[in-house]
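Dear Dr. H.,

I hope your travels went smoothly. While you were away I took the liberty of generating a structure for the chain from your last submission, since the lab meeting agenda had it listed for discussion. I wanted you to have the full record in hand beforehand rather than looking at slides cold. The sequence, exactly as received, is reproduced here:
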Amino acid sequence: MAKYLIGLYEDEEKLLVGVEALQREKVPIHEVCTPFPVHGLDSALHLRKSRLPDAAFVYGAMGTLTALSMQTYMYNIDWRVNIGGKSFLPFPSFIPVTFELTVLFAGVLMFFSYLFVNRLYPGRKAKVYDVRQTDDAMVVAIAEESAWDRAQEVFRKTGATDIKIIEI
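The corresponding predicted structure, in token form, is as follows:
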């Protein structure tokens, strides 16, 4: 069981002001939970850019290479048949299969990468700091007990509607 000091905000503008004030006071923020996306929260938390688009490109390239190498092998080594003088490397006829495997690899592997990166595996119990975090309130959780006094002061100054200590 871990203890957290949480501050609840009902307005996203106050949340952003509170997060920026906590950052200025050097209070380590454990988690921020919102029921909807808050524009500017990722930059206020100084989060780095996601590498998932780079992974999508790599997965798509893997699909393209798989499709081209599979078709080249089939046409030239596995079942070499000369049909009406057709070339043994008819790349224009490879385009549909190559496109489909590129999209398939990128889509399926991105799905699993997203689940892995966000630790959304089956059986995982979600951390619910407050029941209102999925409805109408935004939660800022502070785990480090030595910073709780400074955090409470910032929560009060920035308009948090509720401040409490919870144990999960």
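Two observations you may find useful: Residues 52-117 form one domain. The mean pLDDT is 92.

With kind regards,
E. W.
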